[in-house]
Amino acid sequence: FQIFAARAAAELDRLRMDRMLRASEERFRDLYEEAPTAYVSLDAGGCLTSVNRAAVEHFGRPAMVLVGSCLAHYAPESPTGKQVMLGLLDRFRGG
User: Fold this and answer.
1) Cα(28)–Cα(46) distance, rounded to whole angstroms?
2) 3-state SS string over 32-89?
């Protein structure tokens, strides 16, 4: 009976922690999505893995178009625009 009680208690703790984690993730997702600042996540290659609503508005493209594209593609078309963006991406990569 003690083993059953210990397993039941452990499962109840796991379920409680799972609910807390889901609630925390939901709060983070809401903060990320509704932030007035454009937020993006990049992979090691400098390609977008996620964007929030403000980033979608800033880039003027749907999220499904942005995600998977490389950030350097959106650098300003100026003599230094691409160079500055590539430098930033190199710093992001730790180079």
Assistant:
1) 23
2) HHHCCCCCEEECCCCEEEEECHHHHHHHCCCHHHHCCCEHHHHCCCCCCHHHHHHHHH
The whole-angstrom separation of Cα 32 and Cα 72 is 22
- What global pTM score does this model have? 0.63
Percentage of residues in the chain having pLDDT higher than 90: 55
Neighbours of 17 (CB within 10 A): 10
Contact 46, 90 (CB under 8 A): no
How much is the pLDDT for 86?
A: 80
Let me know: does 30 contact 39? Beta carbons within 8 Å: no
Residues 6+ apart with CB under 8 A from 81: 75
Q: Taking 70 as the threshold, does the pLDDT of residue 95 lie above it?
A: no
Q: What is the reported pLDDT for 1?
A: 84
